[in-house]
Design goal:
Layout (H helix, E strand, L loop, with lengths): L3 E3 L3 H9 L4 E4 L2 H18 L13 E4 L3 H9 L4
Parallel strand pairs: 1-2
Antiparallel strand pairs: 2-3
């Protein structure tokens, strides 16, 4: 059986690194939630234009090709 997951976490990253999980989907909640609220607040508070073009929020796919960089980013507090 092959394993994949949504909602990236350290256990999933460890499984990807070990080769027991194919990939995880990083749903990028900051882009989906905080960014949207920040844009709405800037519009209400300052009249800043809200993006009319799509703001791509992912998903980010973490697999064997980028798991090391993802782990390093998480350790540094960027993910």
């Amino acid at each position: 059986m092959q394993l994949a997951s949504f909602d990236m976490d350290s256990a999933g990253l460890d499984r990807i690194k070990a080769g027991t999980q194919l990939f995880a989907v990083d749903q990028q909640p900051w882009l989906q939630g905080f960014l949207a609220v920040s844009m709405a607040d800037a519009y209400v508070s300052f009249g800043t234009a809200i993006a009319s073009a799509p703001v791509l929020t992912g998903p980010g796919i973490v697999d064997a090709a980028n798991v090391e960089a993802t782990i390093a980013g998480a350790a540094a507090g960027f993910r």
